[in-house]
Design brief:
The structure holds two protein chains of two kinds. Chain A is α+β, with helices and mostly antiparallel strands. Chain A has three domains: 4-151, Beta-Lactamase, CATH 3.30.450; 196-319 and 439-477, Immunoglobulin-like, CATH 2.60.40; 323-437, Mu homology domain, subdomain B (Immunoglobulin-like). Chain A is 18% helix and 37% strand. Chain A has helices spanning 28-37, 75-91, 97-102, 104-114, 126-132, 142-154, 246-252, 290-296, 419-424; strands at 4-8, 14-19, 46-49, 52-58, 64-69, 198-212, 218-232, 239-243, 281-284, 299-301, 306-315, 323-333, 340-350, 357-366, 371-378, 382-386, 391-400, 403-413, 430-437, 446-451, 462-477. Chain A has a nine-stranded mixed sheet, with no helix packed on it. Chain A has a five-stranded antiparallel sheet with strand order 2-1-5-4-3, with helices on both faces. The longest helix of chain A has 17 residues, at 75-91. Chain A starts with a strand and ends with a strand. By secondary structure, chain B is an all-alpha fold. Chain B has a domain at 471-571. Classes of the chains: A alpha+beta, B mainly alpha. Strand 15 of chain A pairs antiparallel with strand 4 (672-673) of chain B. Chain B: Adaptins are components of the adaptor complexes which link clathrin to receptors in coated vesicles. Clathrin-associated protein complexes are believed to interact with the cytoplasmic tails of membrane proteins, leading to their selection and concentration. Chain B: Residues 623-698 are annotated as: Disordered. Chain B: Pfam families: Adaptin_N (PF01602).
């Protein structure tokens, strides 16, 4: 159990302090401020002084969320709690020092729901807590959180302290079939059903990460995927879906035995070279029945109201690479002037089928420090040199499949940049970001998706949607 | 009023005035004003403005009877709690109010009141708390939340009054065994018992029987994620399995939870399984695979959790001879955007994962990072390369040395210094292999500025003085200014000059030696240095005068003896390892130090004895799973497999995936500067020009 939880503004003012143990002195808050917030070279997310330990994270807006404790607590619990708290703050749009100063009482209320008054975590399911709070959240949807985060990234994520890679907001689940001790709200899903259409949307979100070496050999490549579910269904309706993973093929002996009547086949989706995907490690949400998965490799669950991250998986083999980047980067010394420059010739080719197109494609090409300008020539898209980030950004609004585009550029460096400096420049990799709909990087497809009928209700049509979104994770190419 | 900032220090009078103001006006706005004032009180408490707020005690008391607004109640309780821990005696008047709250019908208020009672360190308060809890435990119809809070409050009360709490432990054990409809309470009682025993260094660790453990494990599917992680955290050590079947059954029950998305649950499941593995002597390979997969999946979490998992991975890699995790090296390749602590830890993991097969990949990675901008990273990378050379055999050492020499040409000073230091270790391990490279190295002697690299350089020059013709001049560049050097360098200079003299007594070496000895004895400030210089001087004089007592051979032996082979010991002490394995996921596993060094109050954990306890960890046999191999081969027919695991295959390249594009856009036009200069030379013809060229009149 934690001894105290503190929240500071980005500048270091203490806004929320909740002490769970009387034995902790109040001066702890100052110690943290001095040691971490105001110090320049901090190399670890955990700090131990004497026998007091601080665990901390930073929200996307820069708020410091800190826990203090004096015993050997399990750090995984602490960080999961902090991330859940951060997700809660994001839902209420509390993200900078003004908003938190206005709404700090909300934070106290939320803390009293998430943790017992003695500092033990009891429940961090965001929708259920949101329902119990006196004020409804400003942004209850999952989708808008991701967009907001993506917006923040585009606006120049030059923060020198590391921001969390993606704030996992989404243990946004609430009631499980289990007996949750939240005061009596386990059946509140019932009130929204009547009159609304029944709808279930499955989002298969994938992020592809690859690292390509100088000789264009692939050092590592893997795809992280999550399957999110948004459901507007009556409570206690169970669903199941099956994936085309090798293990389920092996255990059920192929396609035959298990497909119920209302099967949905996604045959238009391009799959990987193999018909099946080797899902090596997947993590499931609370509401998924893990034992059924162990036995039959069928994901069976009872969806709670709202948005839930159902499953996370990780695939390393047989990945469909959507883009191929071929950079040729050389140091040229121009005979006319004494300075040297770097010449880039980069071609970007899309490898997915031509009927699809990727949006928000950006190729970030680093340039050495000391570059004042770049002369750029592109075949398509727009490329600009951004001096503050030491990079050129080549943007496409829409990149059609099976297309190739080229960029040719040369840097103009300042007078004191010699050839030696350019040769010694440690080249940060070229990074690519993109978003691609209805394409599965890993080749994973949902074979069937079935909703059990409510036993005594009228026969209702449930609208089921499956949407595949592939995004870039860390798509890095060394040159 | 509402524009006034809430988060500012106020005097008591100001807030008092505000509260009175709120009462006089109309109901609606009055309420908001009062609430604002209350908020200001809390804000001021956070800011530390205690003395002022203490004066507002009577006002706050007046708000107490308001039952229907939770926020007001919360403010009142928070007020008492904060001030109670600082000045308990002044708050004593609030006690009857709090007691009345305990009897309230609203459960939340009861909970708040209980926790307020517990947080004020004053006898009267804690006595009331005890009475309440005892009454509560007796009643069977208490609501879940309240009972849970009460149970955990016992743990807090333990700080104040240990004996009374110990007497209640039997009640708690009853709760654990009793099958309630609400398993969360059982878990809470279990956790509380565990913590109470943990704190008490004299009491034995808490034990539960294997049957109880099985009952609790059966509850697993119904529990909330946090309760699951609590249960899995408490179980190691408390339950001691007595037979192999028990162990296998427990592992089966826990295995699905490795796939939980909450990292606390999966790490605790990992810990429990590792603990159980100590009690059996053979394990199926599928379990190993699942452990490894679960760890890899955890690497996809945000940075701090990744950091935790990586440190635990290091732990597991260090521990057993035959490591329990099968992990691919590419997972530990460093990405550009990783925060610095992750990069450091990944480097360490790479170093530990290296063996003959994986060496080329790892060396390439390390070479990339040796030229990184961050100084510490590149130093660590260079050091890792050097340590790898020492750790693995001769062939690998050659590759490492090649890379190091290549890096020397890079010309960056801290890299060179690090290389020199690391080369010394390599030369100690392989004294004869790399002689030809020493000349190259010596050319960079003037780069050695830091203590360690200077030391290393001096040692190299001394040790290999036979192949360096001009060693004396080189040495003199170091020894010229001996008094200004760091202590370690001074000592090694002294030792070296004596060695030179003893090996080849010549006028030049003698002069050098005498000069250095003179400086050290007469002008040095460090007494250790002086006494060592004196010792050497005596030794040399005795050797000269009386060759019977100290023969030249003896002298050589003393001064210039055989050096033992260097060994880099990266393994942790087994006792420490055992303890850390029982602490996976906790803070000590991040620091990789025993609990007693960091938390003095916690008890140290050991593996409890049992008849099946397997003390020798190396004996754990892994049964390869033959069935899974067949499946893999059958499903890979007709599949383009690009396996990266086998080091013999070449790594896949981008061109494997290449398909010719249907549409190719070529470059058009000249290179244009994209800078923000607004000069657009190629502008469209101005409207004026256009109008002038029109034939019609406008």
């Amino acid at each position: 159990m934690i001894s105290a939880l503190l929240i500071y503004t980005p500048r270091g003012e203490l806004v929320v302090s909740k002490f769970y143990k009387g034995s902790i002195k109040r001066s702890i808050t100052d110690i943290f401020r001095v040691q971490v917030i105001n110090s320049l070279d901090v190399r670890s997310p955990i700090l131990t002084l004497g026998s007091t330990t601080f665990h901390y994270i930073r929200s996307p807006g820069g708020l410091w969320l800190v826990t203090v404790n004096r015993n050997n607590i399990n750090s995984a619990r602490v960080w999961e709690l902090l991330y859940a708290l951060g997700g809660m703050l994001a839902m209420y749009a509390i993200d900078n020092s003004d908003t938190i100063k206005e709404q700090f009482m909300l934070v106290y209320e939320c803390l009293s729901l998430m943790l017992l008054e003695t500092g033990v975590v009891c429940d961090t399911e965001l929708p259920s807590i949101a329902k119990q709070m006196s004020v409804p959240p400003a942004k209850p949807e999952l989708v808008s959180m991701q967009q907001e985060e993506a917006k923040k990234k585009k606006q120049g994520s030059l923060a020198s302290k590391a921001l969390p890679k993606f704030l996992q907001p989404v243990r946004m689940n609430s009631m499980t079939r289990s007996l949750s001790l939240s005061t009596g709200s386990s059946n509140s899903g019932g009130n929204s059903v009547i009159g609304k259409k029944n709808e279930l949307v499955l989002y298969v979100n994938e992020r592809i990460n690859i690292l390509v070496a100088k000789d264009s050999s692939i050092l590592k490549s893997y795809v992280d995927g999550t399957i999110d579910l948004t459901s507007h269904l009556p409570p206690n309706v169970s669903c199941q879906f099956g994936l085309n993973d090798t293990q389920s093929y092996n255990s059920s002996g192929g396609y035959g035995s298990r497909i119920p009547r209302s099967a949905e086949r996604t045959s238009t989706l391009p799959t990987s070279a193999a018909m099946a995907v080797d899902l090596q490690n997947c993590k499931f949400h609370q509401c998924v029945n893990l034992e059924t998965y162990e036995r039959d490799h069928v994901v069976s669950f009872t969806p709670p109201e709202g948005t839930v991250e159902l499953m996370k998986y990780h695939v390393t083999e047989d990945i469909n690479l959507p883009f191929k980047v071929s950079p040729i980067v050389t140091v040229v010394s121009s005979s006319a002037s004494t300075t040297s420059a770097i010449d880039y010739r980069i071609s970007l080719k899309s490898l997915f089928p031509s009927k699809l197109s990727a949006t928000d494609v950006t190729l970030r090409i680093p340039v050495p420090p000391g570059t004042i300008d770049c002369k750029i020539n592109t075949s398509n898209g727009s490329c600009r040199f951004i001096p503050e980030e030491h990079a050129m950004l080549w943007r496409f609004n829409k990149f059609q499949g099976s297309t190739e585009n080229t960029l040719s550029a040369i840097t103009v460096s300042s007078n004191d940049t010699t050839e030696l400096v350019l040769q010694q420049w440690s080249r940060p990799p070229i990074a690519l970001t993109f978003e691609l709909l209805m394409f599965s990087n890993s080749g994973l497809s949902i074979r069937y998706f079935d909703v059990q009928q409510v036993r005594d209700g009228p026969r209702q049509r449930t609208a089921k949607w499956i949407k595949y979104v592939s995004k870039s994770g860390a798509y890095e190419i060394r040159y | 009023m509402s524009d006034q900032r809430i988060f500012a220090r106020y005097r008591a009078n100001e807030i008092r005035a505000e509260l009175q103001n709120g009462e006089m006006k109309k109901v609606k706005s009055g309420v908001t004003k009062k609430k604002n004032a209350l908020r200001k009180i809390i804000a001021n408490l956070t800011l530390g403005n205690y003395s002022e707020m203490l004066q507002l005690f009577p006002e706050v008391m007046r708000f107490w009877p308001i039952e229907d607004d939770i926020e007001v109640k919360r403010v009142c309780h928070e007020y008492i709690r904060t001030l109670g821990s600082i000045k308990p005696r002044s708050i004593i008047e609030a006690l009857p109010f709090i007691l009345r709250d305990l009897e309230s019908r609203n459960e939340r208020i009861q909970i708040m009141a209980l926790s307020t009672l517990v947080s004020v360190p004053f006898n009267k308060f804690t006595d009331e708390a005890f009475d309440f809890i005892i009454k509560l435990a007796g009643k069977r119809t208490t609501s879940g939340n309240l009972l849970k809070n009460a149970i955990y409050s016992l743990v807090q009360l333990d700080d104040y009054d240990h004996e009374r709490v110990m007497s209640l432990t039997s009640t708690l054990s009853e709760i654990v065994d009793h099958h309630l409809e609400n398993p969360t309470i059982q878990i809470a009682a279990l956790n509380a018992l565990y913590q109470i025993h943990d704190r008490d260094a004299k009491a034995p660790p808490y034990h539960i029987s294997v049957d109880t453990a099985f009952n609790l494990l059966e509850l697993l599917p119904t529990l909330n994620e946090w309760d699951t992680s609590t249960l899995l955290e408490v179980l190691p050590i408390t339950v001691v399995p007595q037979s192999h079947d028990d162990v296998y059954d427990m592992i089966d029950m826990i295995l699905p939870h490795l796939q939980h998305v909450n990292s606390a649950v999966s790490l605790n499941a990992l810990k429990m399984i590792l603990y159980l593995l100590n009690y059996i002597d053979e394990v199926n390979e599928t379990i190993i695979k699942r452990l490894s997969n679960s760890v890899v999946a955890l690497l996809e979490k945000p940075a701090e959790l990744q950091f935790l998992v990586l440190r635990n991975v290091i732990l597991l890699l260090l521990s057993r001879e035959q490591s329990l995790l099968k992990l691919d090296v590419p997972y530990f390749f460093i990405e550009y955007n990783d925060p610095i602590y992750i990069k450091d830890t990944k480097l360490e993991c790479l170093y530990l994962l290296s063996n003959e097969e994986t060496l080329p990949q790892i060396l390439d990675e390390l070479e990339e990072h040796a030229t990184d901008i961050d100084i510490q990273m590149s130093r660590k990378a260079v050091r890792a390369i050097g340590n790898l050379a020492v750790k693995l055999g001769e062939k690998s050492a050659q590759k490492c040395v090649d890379i190091l020499l290549h890096l020397l040409e890079f010309g960056v000073d801290y890299v060179i210094q690090e290389i020199i230091s690391v080369f010394r270790n390599i030369l100690r391990k392989y004294p004869t292999d790399f002689k030809r490279d020493i000349r190259t190295l010596v050319r960079y002697a003037e780069y050695a500025q830091e203590t360690e690299s200077r030391n290393a350089m001096i040692w190299i020059i001394t040790q290999y003085s036979d192949i360096l013709p001009d060693y004396l001049e080189l040495f003199e560049t170091f020894s010229q200014n001996v008094l200004n050097e760091a202590p370690e360098v001074q000592f090694s200079l002294l030792t070296s000059c004596v060695k030179f003299f003893v090996r080849s007594p010549s006028p030049a070496t003698e002069k050098l030696c005498v000069q250095l000895l003179k400086e050290c004895t007469e002008e040095a400030g460090n007494p250790d240095l002086r006494s060592r210089a004196y010792m050497y001087w005596r030794l040399l004089s005795v050797a000269r005068e009386n060759t019977n007592m100290v023969t030249p051979d003896m002298l050589k032996d003393i001064v210039d003896g055989e050096l033992p082979i260097i060994e880099l010991n990266t393994k942790l002490d087994p006792a420490v390892l055992e303890e850390l394995e029982l602490n996976i996921g906790s803070i000590t596993s991040i620091y990789l130090k025993p609990t007693s060094q960091i938390f003095r109050m916690n008890t140290v954990k050991h593996l409890p004895r049992s008849r099946i306890l397997d003390t020798d960890k190396g004996m754990l046999r892994v049964i390869p799973d033959s069935s899974s191999n067949e499946n893999v081969s059958s499903s890979s027919k007709g599949r383009v497999s690009t396996s990266k695991k086998n080091g013999v295959h070449r790594a896949p390249t981008m061109s494997d995936f290449d398909k010719p594009a249907e549409t190719v856009y070529k470059l058009k036009g000249e290179r244009k500067s994209s800078s923000n200069s607004p000069s657009k030379l190629a502008r469209k013809p101005s409207m004026l020009m256009r109008k002038l060229t029109l034939k019609k009149k406008f």
